[in-house]
Specification:
The protein has helices at 2-21, 51-58, 75-83, 96-107, 136-144, 163-166, 186-208, 219-223, and strands at 25-31, 40-44, 63-68, 87-89, 111-114, 148-154, 171-177. With 226 residues, it is α/β, with parallel strands linked by helices. It has a single domain (2-223), classed as Glycerol-3-phosphate (1)-acyltransferase, CATH 3.40.1130.
Length: 226
């Protein structure tokens, strides 16, 4: 019964956020690959706080996100994220509890979502431009013997600009879902994911005619855009 209420709460929150986001953004999903049935780790680049609700709202499977433990600092946030099945992780130390929880979720055939950059990144710090990424996603997938689904998201950083919400000039948001990377060693999977992120970025650029201004920029820069 408890899991049922969690599922209802998740759908209510994600559905409400999707409805809200459509007032400020037009989201396009490009399916290069698929999200398989059963356990998998979804790994995506991270450009804004809007990424988790967009990916949860527009992709077909429920995602149990791994998020920094600081988000659980208040009673209401701790309860809310717990009901959304978010997994807290200590980004400083070796968080074995988060690892165990993620593996337990995957053992149940669920999707665990991770941002390998470890935070919001743009420019040369972004994995879209070849920056190094943390291997936690691939360690988890390797231990669970499950695939990693690479995902690239672009455009959500424009939602930091208030004009996108009230002027009728909705931001263009693009999501590309790549082919699942088969289970293997974590370094092998990480290298394959790095290639996939670069390829998905190029595919989006070619498919939708994107230019340099469409790629991730700092929130403050997006806020100042006319």
């Amino acid at each position: 019964m408890r899991s049922l209420w969690h599922a209802i709460f998740y759908r209510f929150v994600v559905g409400g956020l999707r409805l809200l986001i459509t007032t400020g953004a037009h989201v396009r999903v490009e399916w290069i690959g698929t999200i398989p049935r059963g356990a998998c780790v979804l790994a995506a680049n991270h450009i804004s706080h809007f990424d988790p609700p967009v990916l949860s709202g527009w992709l077909p499977r429920k995602i149990d996100w791994i998020a920094m433990s600081e988000l659980f600092s208040t009673a209401w946030s701790k309860t809310g994220f717990h009901w959304l099945d978010v997994i807290p992780v200590d980004r400083i130390g070796d968080d074995r509890k988060a690892l165990r929880t993620a593996l337990e979720r995957l053992a149940k055939g669920r999707v665990v979502g991770i941002f390998p950059e470890g935070g919001i990144r743009d420019g040369e710090a972004s994995i879209l431009n070849g920056a190094p990424m943390r291997e936690g996603a691939f360690l988890i997938a390797s231990k669970a013997r499950c695939p990693v689904v690479p995902v690239v998201i672009l455009g959500t950083d424009r939602l930091y600009n208030i004009r996108r919400w009230f002027s009728g000039r909705r931001a263009r948001v693009f999501v590309a879902v790549g082919h699942p990377i088969p289970a293997g060693g974590r370094r092998e999977m990480a290298e394959a994911a790095a290639r996939a992120f670069s390829d998905l970025k190029s595919r989006l650029a070619n498919r939708f005619g994107l230019d340099a201004d469409d790629f991730p920029k700092p929130p403050r820069e997006r806020m100042r855009e006319a």
